[in-house]
Amino acid sequence: MSAETLPAALVKRKAVVYVRQSTQTQVQMNLESQRRQYDLVEVARCYGFVDVEVIDDDLGRSASGAVARPGFDRLVAEVCAGKVGAVLCLDASRLARNGRDWHHLLELCGLVQARVIDTDGVYDPCRPNDRLLLGMKGSISEFELGILRARMLDAREAKARRGELRISVPIGYIWHRETGLGFDPDLRVQEAIRLIFARFRQLGSARQVLLSLAAEQMHFPRPSDGRKRVSFEWTPIRYGTVISILKNPFYAGAYVYGKSQKRVALVDGRVRTTYKHDKPFERWEVIIQDHHEAYIQWSEFERNQKLLAANTYGKADGAKSGRGGRALLPGLLLCGRCGRRLMVTYSGRAPGHPVYRCERPNLMFGRPRCVIFGAKRADAAVAREMLRAVEPLAIEAAIQAERQYMQQQSERRRIAELELQQASYEASLAERRYAVCDPENRLIAAQLEKSWEATLKRVQACEARLAALETANPVPAMPDFAALADDLEAAWNAPGVTMRSRQQLLRTLITDILADYDASSREIVLTIHWRGGQHSQLRVRKPDSGEHACRTSEEAVAVIRSMATRWSDEAIAATLNRMRLPTGQGKTWTGERVRSLRRLRSIPAYRSADKNGEWLTMSEAAAKLGVSNYQIRRLIKEGILAADQVVPDAPYQIRASDLQDERVTVALACKGRPRRATSEAQTSMFSDT
């Protein structure tokens, strides 16, 4: 069709030249395609159009419908307004890659009688033949896109199944041109990754790995050039870094492809595709074990995934790592009746007392709780059993712990030395760059000098950190472990030992503990499953109704019982405080507290309360003789005056008849010289006259 055949009314309208390329790479590299599309402006003028508009807003955007195309939307809006007489494009694939957009545009062009022009000619969508030809061109374009995509994906998957597809690899690996996938040659990067796995092996928690490494000012490389991963900058380690390393199978020597998937959704009438959605392990497309060098074994990788899952969700087949708190056995206790793990709750006033409950049947089905018991007695019993079990191996365990501690200190020094080595190299490089620069060119020399000073400061910081490690952790002498077995209980109860440390130690020895309740004997039966297959059973008495953990010690009750027949409640309280025997709540004694305990235990009051004159206190004896308390105490210490004392540090109780003893009378009559014990073998310095 020639220019003369176009209706004059259409030529008076504007012609729109639609320019599009699918990707940014095509925009930068495929310049000839751009040039040919922009040349359509001259083609429009040849057809008689004076007003020619170029719409190139969609350069670098795909026409598959996955992304928005503002240029195409503007074209459709102008066609609907009847302002467009012809739409010019290089071919149908530039306008649309899916049938919906293509046929929608053709329908609109047919309504306003606009023409579609490409390099092959002019098409009128109102004519059936032209409409059929344009429809076939759109279908061929869509089919072509599907064929190309399918071929590329099939080739990609085939190469991935052979382990030859060079996908993006995590930090610590690099694609070598000759040998393929291998370790990053940077030793500092390798040491940082190995340290993360070693800490997780030791602590069993990704969060604790982060806290321990952050406390040591650990740095980890992060790409500074996006996805290229060619240059890195060392920044403080993050939790996401720890998790990504622990969950990545590449570090176990496995080549993995297809572990994530894309999801397609229709949003506001357009297709939206999102990527990087993780798939379950069993749905991974390619898993090739022993494909390349590994930081850890595949078995250790599987154990790490189970432990991470247990820490996150508390699954039934695994116990969480020790996380502290006030209870010793959370996560280890299993109900002996339903098999579920027992939960820890807190009763009483804040902070409360830990209690183990089988809570799931009650929460899920409204059934009574299978087992419920306090944590204090059960924790103490299991701790005693654990100490008894490890006592024969105490020396060997202590030596192994010392060896691990020294290895950890060596790792810290190694990381600091590598960091200092890299900082020294960067400082030397900055110095060489500054040396080769022309000093007169201050625009460049000033910046290079500033960079050199920054690297020198980094070197000083690394040297100070290494010196601090050497000073704070000198090589200690090997201690004597011969008496360690006798000090296990003291070490377990030491103030510096946290509950988290006790929980972690317990989990290295015990797999789980089966808890059940024996109603006949009112005892909690704990069956301990030790690692290695051994089993042992403990029975812990359950407190009676009204009995609580804040009980006064039997030693204090015995003192009160023995003194109550002779002494007042205030005197008993003073004696208990001197003996450092606290109340059941850990408080000091008062007369009222002693009186309350006597009433609760049905202990009668002291005999001196009758005031029958048979027994006297020290103050009463001094008043009767007309002397001071000091003189009475002196007579008691010299053995002249007889006195009873229920327990050490208790007040003296004196029989009234003993005050009439002749020796007491003579001792009190001797005045005017110091009263000291005399010896027959020593001549007195004072005469009797």
Description:
The chain has 689 residues and is an alpha+beta fold. It has five domains: 3-158, Rossmann fold (3-Layer(aba) Sandwich); 173-254 and 289-318, Hect, E3 ligase catalytic domain fold (Alpha-Beta Complex), CATH 3.90.1750; 320-340 and 354-544, no CATH class; 554-610, no CATH class; 615-669, Multidrug-efflux Transporter Regulator, Chain: A, Domain 2 (Orthogonal Bundle). 45% of the residues lie in helices and 15% in strands. Strands 2-1-3-4-5 form a five-stranded mixed sheet, with helices on both faces. Strands 14-18-19-20 form a four-stranded mixed sheet. A three-stranded antiparallel sheet has the order 15-16-17. A hairpin with a 2-residue loop joins β4 and β5. α9 (187-203) runs antiparallel to α15. The longest helix has 43 residues, at 394-436. The chain is elongated and about 155 Å long.
Key descriptive features of the protein:
5-stranded mixed β-sheet, 5 domains, Rossmann fold, 4-stranded mixed β-sheet, Hect, E3 ligase catalytic domain fold
Structural class: alpha+beta
Characterize the overall form: elongated
Number of separate domains: 5
Number of strands: 22
Span of the ends, CA to CA: 161 Å
Poorly predicted regions? none
Question: Biggest sheet, strands in spatial order?
Answer: 2-1-3-4-5
The DSSP helix count reads 24
Major sheet attributes? 5 strands, mixed
User: For the CA atoms, what is the radius of gyration?
Assistant: 45 Å
Q: Whole-number average pLDDT? A: 80
Estimated helix fraction: 40-55%
Estimated share of beta-strand residues: 15-25%
